[in-house]
TrEMBL record:
It comes from Marinobacter santoriniensis NKSG1. This is (S)-2-haloacid dehalogenase. Its EC number is 3.8.1.2. Keywords: Hydrolase. Belongs to the HAD-like hydrolase superfamily. S-2-haloalkanoic acid dehalogenase family.
Amino acid sequence: MSQKKPVLVFDVIETIFSLEALSGAFKVEGLPSHTKDVFFGQLLRDAFATSTTGTYVPFVEMARGTLEVLLTNLGVPSPEAVAGRILPVFGQLEAHPDVHEALALARSRGMGVLFFTNGSTANTQALVERNGLTDHVDHIFSIESCRQWKPKESAYRAAVERVGSEPGHCAMIAAHAWDTAGAMNAGMLAGWVRRQDRRFHPAMTKPTCTSDSLVELVDSLSDRLSSINGTGPKTSSGPAD
């Protein structure tokens, strides 16, 4: 049986790139910074609900629709114009402080690095280049290619198959409980990094490991993937959970 290269699969928005820039964009429009959290939560709600009907709506269209509805509900004049000023901020996000070290560690351990996003390929590629991550990322896979939003099981399978791997040789790292649960449902290992949420959702499938640090998750999961792949683990500093 051919050996599959172990792959670390990273969620993109909030896991790799912080949404704090959106907080500033809402404040410029006279709205509380926490409007960002309401918006992103409602965006995911609308996307997941639409996905369950068997209808695919791309990220940009879904984000614009959700934002225009939210702004209207908040009594903001000219919501279409305001949305037009806020949405481009998705192309200006900054990487979290631990990202460069984590991705460099993944590459040093011989892991493939795949960015897997509900957003667009073009925006993700632009963020990767803007943040100087090009040399650390092997592949970018957007749900545009499979027309299924995460956490649909088929989306995870399509992503890892596109890079020549399979779920049993991959681990997902994400800041969202629904994302790690979706990956595990597809047969992958999963690590949850604490970003916005301080507690893992107790109703979701428990991840393989959790940590405040992306670096610690890469350390733990790369060991586990090396063992599965038969290359043997390095001398580890210990699991992250």
